[in-house]
User: Which sequence fits this backbone?
């Protein structure tokens, strides 16, 4: 597919955005010209923040406006539902959008009551700044950052079809308190069930291939809004959507808390797609693998052991190689260890690709992770 | 049950032990007066070290001698099976024990061929030092240490029935390369299937309630040998065995890599025993919870979120308290956060107990963990 990158972020044609940050709180608004075809994917955590429950209950009405705050996750607090509803009401009132079409998200600390008055003030301010220019998208992306160090937005276009998004997420390893929020806009005409399954599929191959450990956030939300104005083949739409979710997901990993290296892991030759995915996840989630990369230590035994905890394979057929830029070093060939000198040089780089071939079948999967550093521990010991 | 602690370690009546360490390698021997009733539990990792496969294939013959080396895991290497067999043969020859009654274990680095000649030399040396005195147990425990800082042995007696063991394990978080080896001896007459199920049950409540993340070792082995000489009720035997495995398991956590705090987690009021266990494990395995304890940060939201990723419960009924020594601080009562000042003071201690009450049923479970520190990362970045 021949797409081109654009600079719209979430401000693709038909959408405005704004963001304000002051003190502990930030507020982002996204406003569509009309009610959108809407799809959404939420956290699988059994503990769900109030705004997740709220938005889960309403997004099928079609979303026209999103209000999201940083600074407080509005999770595990009595009165959380009331606060989520009050945020939605305020946005509804200020933007002149029916309450049933306003989605709400929150990100920040769990278990503390939100200062809903502070948030309401910021909603008003943000509303005054709504703009269809990419600046609005940038401000919105900034407003929802917590431990993020980088702004995350991406958009692309193909044959008049636009898909663009912003997200926040403070790292690979640590879907923190209220990790991952992502809003995507498009003008593609893709109806109901297909929009939802396209989003689910795109999330599976992007955000779910970077996400992590036992630590699943209570607030994760990915929301896709379509103005339904330009015809588009479903296959092309899916490809464009995956491009956007993939780029955003990789931005989260690159911004991983304390991360010093970006690691792409590909498992090939797996018996099934599920095996390939589980193999990739076991590797990118393993603290021992992550700390080995931090130490620039080509300890492929940890990779084999991590995969072995998740899937069955024949160690005697295992190939593993490390690559960076144009250099490649094979560290294991048919289960036999090779010289590790070239691998050590490769691990000194910032971007590393690990390819594992199981020689058991025709399936493969790719995922993205980062190393685990002493800074990761420092950041998470201190955050509150 | 009225038991008393003893100092035998694995040298309970009817057993001798010895250990030697030199350079990169260490060797431990345990020798019984005759062939023992034997039970064993091995790693669930699909990648299994050669000695695990070897011992899994023979322990039902009854074990009379154990030979274990540190320095190399004998895992993911061509020729590993031959090396494991050669270790067993050498021990068989030197000790005059039938080859089919010799069990083998290894711990250390994965993917590098073992220097089996060095190990054979140490086997001979260790054989010369075999002794029924507790010193033999101590030397054996020392010989299998890798990143362990403390020797781990424990034994107890009740009505003439002895159970004693040694183990190695370098930490809660990081079942390293070849984490956990444990040998237990007894004189209790407990036959076949009952011995196996007693061991399985004891492991479930001890080593499996400290174990960890994605990182499951390829070499984990728990072996129980009985000389079958003293009558003992099954219930009493189980209790004594659980005492020994529990103490050894907690020793592993206290020696956790880089750990600065020991954390006991109890989940009460769960709908099922499985829920209680999964809840405990989710908490002790969460890097976010672990780093929060390191930071002495009473961030109970992370505890709720970690449990929510594993089990369903009503946040509105949740009680959480922290305790240390005689001080207790309730941080959440019926889902509402309390003052955290007292909790902060408690978290400044080294030993912390977390009690979570779900108010959903009558089941409970207990597990043990440690905090995650910058030293954890440093140790695992450097180890090779």
Assistant:
């Amino acid at each position: 597919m021949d797409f081109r990158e654009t600079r719209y972020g979430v401000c693709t044609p038909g959408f405005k955005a704004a963001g304000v940050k002051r003190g502990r709180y930030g507020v982002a608004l996204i406003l569509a010209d009309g009610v959108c075809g809407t799809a959404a994917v939420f956290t699988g955590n059994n503990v769900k923040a109030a705004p997740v429950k709220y938005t889960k209950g309403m997004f099928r009405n079609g979303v026209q406006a999103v209000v999201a705050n940083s600074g407080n996750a509005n999770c595990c607090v009595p009165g959380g539902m009331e606060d989520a509803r009050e945020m939605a009401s305020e946005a509804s009132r200020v933007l002149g959008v029916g309450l049933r079409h306003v989605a709400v998200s929150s990100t920040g600390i769990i278990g503390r009551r939100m200062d809903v008055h502070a948030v309401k003030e910021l909603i008003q301010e943000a509303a005054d700044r709504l703009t269809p220019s990419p600046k609005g998208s940038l401000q919105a992306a900034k407003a929802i950052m917590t431990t993020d160090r980088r702004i995350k937005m991406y958009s692309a276009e193909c044959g008049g079809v636009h898909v663009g998004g912003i997200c926040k997420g403070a790292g690979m390893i640590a879907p923190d308190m209220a990790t991952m929020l992502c809003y995507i806009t498009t003008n593609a005409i893709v109806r109901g069930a297909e929009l939802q399954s396209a989003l689910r599929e795109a999330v599976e191959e992007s955000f779910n291939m970077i996400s992590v450990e036992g630590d699943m956030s209570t607030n994760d939300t990915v929301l896709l809004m379509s103005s339904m104005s330009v015809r588009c083949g479903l296959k092309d739409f899916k490809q464009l959507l995956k491009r956007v979710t993939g780029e955003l997901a990789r931005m989260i990993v690159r911004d991983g808390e304390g991360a010093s290296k970006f690691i792409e892991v590909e498992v090939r030759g797996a018996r099934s797609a599920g095996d390939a995915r589980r193999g990739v996840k076991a590797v990118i989630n393993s603290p021992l693998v992550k700390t080995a990369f931090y130490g620039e230590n080509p300890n492929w035994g940890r990779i084999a052991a991590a995969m072995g905890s998740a899937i069955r394979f024949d160690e005697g057929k295992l190939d593993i190689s490390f690559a960076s830029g144009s250099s490649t070093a094979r560290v294991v060939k048919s289960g036999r260890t090779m010289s590790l000198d070239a691998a050590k040089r490769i691990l000194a780089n910032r971007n590393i690709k690990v390819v594992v071939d199981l020689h058991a079948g025709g399936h493969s999967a790719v995922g993205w992770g980062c190393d685990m550093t002493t800074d990761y521990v420092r950041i998470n010991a201190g955050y509150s």
User: Anything to note?
Assistant: Chain B has a mean pLDDT of 90.
